[in-house]
Design goal:
The protein is an alpha/beta fold. 41% of the residues lie in helices and 10% in strands. The strands form 2 sheets. It has a 3-stranded parallel sheet, sandwiched between helices. A two-stranded antiparallel ribbon has the order 4-5. A hairpin with a 2-residue loop joins strand 4 and strand 5. It starts with a helix and ends with a helix.
């Protein structure tokens, strides 16, 4: 019989990021995924997610050559307010809105990891105002974004086929 360790290994190998590093010939430095995390400091039901936001976790990435930021799904699902575009103005209160938080995340990533390739992956099925905000902030900071499309999902999460599609679409952009 197969143990839980075998099941976990199989599930990890089916993840989009495992497929990407395996097929692309990359070495994983750090995967700092956190279920339910938001880019902004606002979480579900308006809860304070500052302890797990992408901004808070950014300094833990080591010395990467490439950073893939796959975020904003939970901001979209949690109904986070987009707020106003605010570049270079990152007071704590503003970071509870999506646009200032997104700007702070990218500005800090660029400043903290000079010379690192940074890509933002945009999930399909997000609110239009979230997608518009991501693309605008990415353009402002000249960070390339990868707009995912046609991702097969079960209960709003990528299926095995969806995981492969994500890996395919990301590799198509970063492998060039």
């Amino acid at each position: 019989s197969r143990g839980l360790g075998d099941v976990y290994k199989r599930q990890v190998k089916e993840s989009w990021w495992w497929q990407l590093i395996s097929r692309g010939g990359y070495i994983l430095g750090v995967n700092d995924s956190y279920s339910g995390a938001t880019i902004s400091y606002t979480g579900y039901s308006g809860a304070d997610y500052s302890d797990r936001s992408f901004i808070t976790r950014l300094p833990r990435l080591g010395s990467p050559d490439i950073i893939l930021i796959f975020g904003a799904t939970n901001d979209s699902w949690a109904g986070v307010k987009v707020g106003e575009y605010a570049y270079g103005k990152f007071s704590g209160a503003l970071l509870y809105d999506f646009r200032p938080a997104m700007a702070r995340l990218l500005e800090e990533a660029i400043n903290r990891y000079p010379g690192t390739e940074i890509y933002f992956i945009i999930n399909d099925g997000l609110r239009d105002d979230i997608v518009e905000s991501i693309t605008e902030v990415c353009r402002h900071y000249s960070v390339p974004f990868i707009q995912l499309h046609d991702i097969d999902k079960m209960s709003n999460h990528p299926s095995k086929a969806g995981m492969k599609a994500i890996a395919d679409q990301v590799l198509e952009v970063i492998g060039k």
